Sequence to fold (125 residues):
Amino acid sequence: VQLVESGGGLVQAGASLTLSCTASAFSTYTMGWFRQTPGKEREFVASITWSASWSASSTDYADSVKGRFTISRDKAKNTVYLRMNSLKLEDTAVYYCGAAAFGLKPTTHEGYDYWGQGTQVTVSS
Fold:
């Protein structure tokens, strides 16, 4: 499966931004967002599982983004979103979308099988 991210950009601290990740085919994968800055490992941000029932999807967040970021998915569009509110300088990174096997909820990049090309998010003061 191919993943394509979009929505990155340059914003001021406190602003909001929504990232999108579209899969090339129908997908029941767990979808995750990670971010990476130069010299550091790819860091878990959020994940969402797939369920036939929207209410049964499970989400998970890194402590650093809880209450500010929201992950969601549109199954009909094979797209997962990351809504980022109250952005901080430390949120600056390249954000990657990943796909992991159905039912899993990995929080490390090794748990994901497919990756997008990444989209840059820069938060300025």
User: Anything to note?
Assistant: The CA atoms of residues 37 and 93 lie 5 Å apart. The chain has a mean pLDDT of 94.
